[in-house]
Amino acid sequence: MSPNGQRQTYRRSIPGLASLPRPVYGRTESLPNRALTYRHSHPWVQLSYAIAGVLEVQTAAGRFIAPPQRAVWVPAGLPHRVSSTPHTEMRSLYIDCAAVSWAPAACRVLQVSPLLRELIRSFSTLPVEYAEDGEAGRLVQVLLDQLRSAPAVDLMLPLPHDARLQQLCRSLQQRPERQATLAQWSARLGVSEKTLSRLFQRETGLTFRAWRQRLRLLGALTPLEQGERVTDVALACGYDSTSAFIAAFRQQFDCTPGEFFRGS
Q1: pLDDT, mean over the chain
Q2: Is the residue at 16 inside a domain?
Q3: Residue 209 belongs to what domain range?
Q4: Total tally of structural domains belonging to the chain
Q5: What is the mean pLDDT of residues 108-119?
Q6: Residue that is last in its domain, among 108, 133, 156
Q7: Same structural domain for residues 40 and 111?
Q8: pLDDT tens, 236-264?
Q9: Residue 181 and residue 148: Cα distance in Å, rounded?
Q10: Are the CB atoms for 80 and 41 separated by under 8 Å?
Q11: Rounded Cα–Cα distance for residues 242 and 179 (Å)
Q12: At what angle do helices 163-174 and 193-204 cross, to 10 degrees?
């Protein structure tokens, strides 16, 4: 803890690899405090996966959130920054592009099945220079096959490029419970409500109301994963009642908060 009682944040180191020793390279980390990296990129694909805790990968396109049993796929060459909540148990895979030529060139969040979870766990026990023509090499091929078939999940908050929308979105990210309407924001930013609405739709693919709701619900994942009461999380996110929060959560994720984290 820092002197003012806040949990410390520290910069995670980034592996200084000139090249990968094998088509897939693994890294295991236990992160007791909130951690983040500088904005950077790799000449290979990165898969960031948390056994416990919540990971966030931020790119110019938006924020990609991965609670337990989800992972963020980061394409090669894409500038990004990774942050994590306290007590995160992280598994990172760095993958040679030639081994995943099928992969789309876009950042996304993947669902991690029980089989894929065990494959990642087993891979983390292998030596760095595993035998590619033996049992370890066959495990890696199955791991890559499972990554190829892993479904993408909608745990991404798109971020705008327009300076006016950026100001609005930064303010809401700092205080997601704010109840200011789009009309109030349009007056503050000096543009018409209709123009602001069109900008939001064009730059994020979401209405203002839908974007703010997704911001709140994605922000709720961290306190929920850490065991905070649903009622407390709902009020902190700006919802008037627990039932309204759960209804919005179900609409976004097709399940309740308890079901979302079951098995984590």
Answers
A1: 90
A2: yes
A3: 161-261
A4: 2
A5: 95
A6: 156
A7: yes
A8: 998 989 999 999 999 999 899 989 887 55
A9: 42
A10: yes
A11: 17
A12: 80
